[in-house]
Design brief:
By secondary structure, this protein is α/β, with parallel strands linked by helices. It folds into 2 domains: 119 residues, 3-Layer(aba) Sandwich (D-Maltodextrin-Binding Protein, domain 2); 130 residues, D-Maltodextrin-Binding Protein, domain 2 (3-Layer(aba) Sandwich).
Length: 318
Amino acid sequence: MPLTSRNLSDWLDRSPLLRPVVLWSLVALVALPLLVGAGFLTFTVFAGPEPPRGNAPGPTRATRSSETRLLLAGSGSNVPLTRQLADACSRALPDLHVEVDEGMGSTGGLRALADGEIDLALVSRPLRDAERTPGLTVVPYARAPVAVATHPGVVDEGVTQAQLVEIFQGVRGRWSDGRVVVPVQRESGDSSHAAVSKRLPAFAVADEQARPEQRWLVAYHDRSMHEALLATPGSVGLVDASAVRVGGWPLRLLKVDGAAPTGAAIAAGKYPFWKDLSFVSSGRPSAAVAKFLACVASPVGEDVIRKAESLPLSGGAR
């Protein structure tokens, strides 16, 4: 008689002592392939190569060849111009590969340098006393105009220094065509605001007084400043002129006291607002770092900087 599920049930009913044995045998028969498969999968995962981790940090000094590859990071103001320098020097020196990471601020770049995660930090402000640790070398490479930038729809072509102060005081509230002026600030400690404040103390007072009152919009990095100015009719803010030009942002860069924000105007003493863009290295520079810095100071690098309408600085370390 063939064995069916009904016959099996009747047989188990007549033999209750065998029921647990049969049931556990069936369970084992089903579970055994699953256990074998799980064991094979476990061996494959743990014995195979470690998968990439989504939160793992970027390339570090230990995984890069210091003779041919460089990783730079830091101030967002420096990034667009430095990327052009990296491209030009990589073409001039085919054995050199230079990567410029997204902006993380001057402070972030110095921390990454201290941790050994990058080869050069990009800095757009003077180092603070606490940051001047032994072994650091600061190499300024470009003097970039700090521009008064506006939404492209603003009709005014320039402002005076006195008018700039009035704008951030809230006293000057309309452009020449009657449109409302909308100032956009950067966060406290921003290098562009610091550069203007250093040369125009009245602006520093107006800038700081506006912060606790939350009087103006605030952008927390260069890209968000550019986007805010483009998205807000009548807006005005301080930007790195070379970053705007190299990045192709269609903002209006105003003259200040009749002078355009260019390296030539800075060199002639006509344009008042600028900041130095610098590389910071730690310890003895690698061969790749030395090659890159030499390229930036060469006609190859100077040509890139001048095309961005900034002023090359080839005076060496300080």
